[in-house]
Amino acid sequence: MTLDAETFRALVTEASLSPSVHNTQPTRWRLGPDGRVQVLEDESRRLPVGDPEGRDLNVSHGSAVEGFCLAAGRRGLVVDVGHDGVHVAELTVRLGGVSDPLAAFLTQRRTYRGKFEGGAVAHAAMARFEQSEDLIVAQDPDHVAELARLYDEAGLRWFRNVPYRAELVSWMRLSRRHPSWSLDGLNAEAMEMSGIEATGAGLVLRPGVFETLDRIGLAGALVAEAAVVRSASAVALFHRPANEAPFDTGRRFHRVWLSFTQAGLSAAPMAVLADDTKARESLQADFGIGGERRLITAFRLGVAPARDLAAKPRLGLDALIV
After folding, report:
1. What are the chain's domains?
2. pLDDT of 236-247, one tens digit each?
3. Rounded-to-integer distance, Cα 291 and Cα 320, Å
């Protein structure tokens, strides 16, 4: 079959809901005259400080392609994913697909960075969640509290890196007046910040201000998230084979996150636990993740309060299709 433009646009729309590092949305799509889809990279969306080797970038690409494949399956289509050495990937779409149970949750998956609910609903959601061999799930409150402490320590080390902090802030949208508030990056609403908190974050993270606060011992408390992490029902450590291509890791990463949603759980990545060498080595030793495996990220898991959420910040098809 030849993939038509209308179906292609529908598939890209659903694929665009896939998670990406800092919500940079680096994946671009092109429909060729033969009906094959070229997956491309927007190089302007690289993170040269936070992701110099491009691992997170390629995890993001893999996640987007998995979203495309799941959306295709819901329409009775199969996607063959190939790599030609030129593009991120080349996709051949044909008839015969069967809808994957996870596909129904593509539009429901959300990042939730606030405090979680407790009680029976949270316990029921954790009971529904089916664990897998690439996840280590810590539910004991003492373990969660220790992971919260490690997370804040690692986060403070990274915030002290001035170029990293500047790069992160460049992807933060702390005011609704920001032109990309509803398009990409991490807006204050998505980060569960009030207007006052967002204004404060913009001040605290400024060059010079953060360093001054750090010298008098205040910076750590101002960027700490331990209280939020401790509200989680669990923290899940996601690990994969050390030699696995980041693109393939990204496909699995997306499926794992959708499995949380399927169980009724919300999640937020705690990527610094994997990015920070000291924290990663400590966790791999403490939780028995051997050298043949790589810690990819950690997720805090729980049930978010029931309320209407704003639409995800996403680029339009005019930017994603090239």
Report:
1. 5-108+310-320 (3.40.109.10)
2. 999 999 999 999
3. 38
